[in-house]
Amino acid sequence: MLQGMFRSGELPAGERLAAADELFGRSVLPMRLVSQADGVFEATVRHVDLASMKVVELAATPAAMLRTPRLIRRADPEVLSVILSLNGGLVVSQSGRETEVGRDQLALYDSSLPFRIGVATGDGTTTVVSAHVPRAQMELPLAGLGRLLARPLPAGRGSGFGGLLTQLLTDVTGEPGDHRPVDLVRMGSIAHDLLTAVVAHHLDAETAVPDDARHRALLLRIDSFVRKQLHDPTLSPATIAAAHHISVGHLHRLFGPRGTTVAAWIRRQRLERARRDLADPALRELPVHRIATRWGFTGHSTFTRAFRAAYGTAPQDYRHQAAAAPGHE
């Protein structure tokens, strides 16, 4: 997938805003970029192409992105966009509404309607991440979409699909080179499903989400929940199903395509984290039974048997082997 970077610092101060404005005018969603502080304007822009979704990270001093009626008449890609701020200072205006978007929130906006997005509304630099998806690919009845535009929607930890979408988009725009092209394609598919789920949830139209997209999004929520609860020895298919308001049978059917049971997947996640801790020099003095308890195993012998079955060696022996490996400090 394509990635691109623009850095205003590589240009003379007097040319930076004009160059950034030209860049946004040629983007997948053409718009104007304006600033009252032309002489001191700074911006870094990174584009990541996820095939089904285009993602943009903008770090800028005070500026505004404008989608005007003239630009809409000239070209409309008919995309639905989502935007979030990593450090505050974001205001989205569309459809007669203006909303300040906090750090644990996101907002939607539509390319077919005029909008204004204010970035870095105070002093300093603000970093925002936006993503764009063709509305036709959303596979949702979007007649009621207008009531969601330019409204703050929850996107913090524990907020469901919005929180998962935020985590994924901020990961995508991490350090360049962290993801292989095939990884970005897969992440694009996941992000597309999550955005569909966010919109469906807030439109009260979950039943209109295609089964495959709905199941993938639900599995992502379950995976995140399990990883946060691995320390709890009472974690089980029953508690997972109850937390997600589904039956245990439905949960097992969701895991069917993975070729494993829910209990086996939980055990594998716990063993992997225990193995990581056993190889960690910083935890060398932590007894093996404490590591087992840390990851939800209720008995040392149970943990030892499971670890040996998975990795062919006892936990203590694995720790010694890891300590003796070259480069292990």
UniProtKB/TrEMBL annotation:
Coiled coil: none annotated. PROSITE patterns: HTH_ARAC_FAMILY_1, HTH_ARAC_FAMILY_2. InterPro entries: AraC-bd_2, AraC_XylS_family_regulators, Homeodomain-like_sf, HTH_AraC, HTH_AraC-typ_CS, Tscrpt_reg_AraC-type_HTH. Keywords: DNA-binding, Transcription, Transcription regulation. Pfam families: AraC_binding_2, HTH_18. It comes from Actinacidiphila acididurans. Residues 220-321 form the HTH araC/xylS-type domain. PANTHER family: ARAC SUBFAMILY (PTHR46796:SF6), HTH-TYPE TRANSCRIPTIONAL ACTIVATOR RHAS-RELATED (PTHR46796). This is Helix-turn-helix domain-containing protein.
